[in-house]
Specification:
Helices cover 22% and strands 30% of the residues. With 67 residues, it is of the alpha+beta class. The model has no long low-confidence stretch (mean pLDDT 82).
Length: 67
């Protein structure tokens, strides 16, 4: 049975990144999920594109500076 993730009141199958074991979103869904987390829990999340799977993930970590 596929894993499921509750997302803005809609139950949908969740895909996971095999490298980071995080939910894999398309960009619009990642922004929507981050906004929902802010609305529901006042937790600010950043989205980033995964270099391994090409999907988008959420993180609470600050963006790293690259020299």
């Amino acid at each position: 049975m596929a894993r499921r993730k509750w997302f803005s009141g809609v139950r949908q199958p969740a895909e996971y990144c095999q490298w980071h074991h995080k939910v894999r979103y398309d960009k619009i869904s990642a922004v929507t999920a981050a906004n929902a987390r802010w609305r529901d829990a006042h937790e600010r999340l950043r989205i980033y594109e995964c270099p391994q799977c090409g999907g988008w993930h959420l993180t609470s970590q600050l963006e790293r500076d690259h020299d």
